Amino acid sequence: MFVNPDPEAAPLEAALGGLPAIVAESGLDVDSIRFHSHHEWPIEANWKIVMENFLECYHCPTAHPGFSKVIDVSPDSYLLQVHATFSSQVAPVRASALAGNGTSGYTPSAELKQSQYHFLFPSTTLNIAPGIPNISLERYIPDGLRRTLEVTDYYFGVETSESDIEELLAWDNQVAEEDVSLVQSVQRGLESGAVQQGRLMGESEKLIADFQRRVHAALLG
């Protein structure tokens, strides 16, 4: 459920834009999924660092080996898109993973052959993993200058077995734990003051550039 306290706010459809159509391309029937579980955990890093980490996969081959054995993260396959109200990362599943030849611990052999990771400014994400019918909705809540609370709700297909759900969650949680280590390391690096200003790669990090423009515009009011 999305709630806006402004009585003059535009309808949700205006904020989502073309997102529902892209989600449909994954093969997921959103009417067939049901709420499964709710999770909250703290991350010792500023929320903007956490969001920037979500918005690029340049780090995936080295930082997420299990993820990269399932998802084709090569630049030619891993699609980055900036839209008017959201941004998207869409990628196919590796053929070896579909065939069960990988060593990732997760075999996405069910309906969904595509992964999707979407970002709604300022701090909401919608994620579709390959395999069984699923969506996770995440909110990243600032909890001080150096702390973020990640709140995740998982949804799965009504007829999906608990064993299949547990397999996907284990794979997803491994990626999450790797990301937490990364962003907390970045937080420590920023606080050291060793680097005054960084640079962004025009293509691989264009979603981060879009995020930073949105933050800048929001701060200017």
Question: Can you walk through the features of this model?
Answer:
The protein is α+β, with helices and mostly antiparallel strands and 221 residues long. The protein has one domain (33-191): Naphthalene 1,2-dioxygenase Alpha Subunit, Chain A, domain 1 (Alpha-Beta Complex), CATH 3.90.380. Helices cover 36% and strands 24% of the residues. It is built from 8 helices and 7 strands, in the order H-H-E-H-H-H-E-E-H-E-E-E-E-H-H. It has helices at 12-16, 19-25, 47-54, 60-63, 65-70, 95-98, 162-192, 206-220, and strands spanning 33-43, 79-82, 86-92, 114-120, 124-128, 134-142, 148-157. It has a 7-stranded antiparallel beta sheet with strand order 1-7-6-5-4-3-2, with helices on one face. The model has no long low-confidence stretch (mean pLDDT 93).
How many discrete structural domains?
1
Strand-residue proportion: 15-25%
Order of the strands making up the biggest sheet: 1-7-6-5-4-3-2
The helix-strand sequence is HHEHHHEEHEEEEHH
Largest sheet: 7 strands, antiparallel
CATH superfamily membership: Naphthalene 1,2-dioxygenase Alpha Subunit, Chain A, domain 1
Model regions low in confidence, pLDDT < 50 over at least 5 residues: none
Oligomerization state of this entry?
Answer: single chain
The percent range for helix content is 25-40%
**In CATH terms, what is the architecture?**
Alpha-Beta Complex
Shape: globular
Helices and strands: which structural class? alpha+beta
Overall pLDDT confidence: 93
Radius of gyration: 17 Å
| CATH class categorisation | Alpha Beta
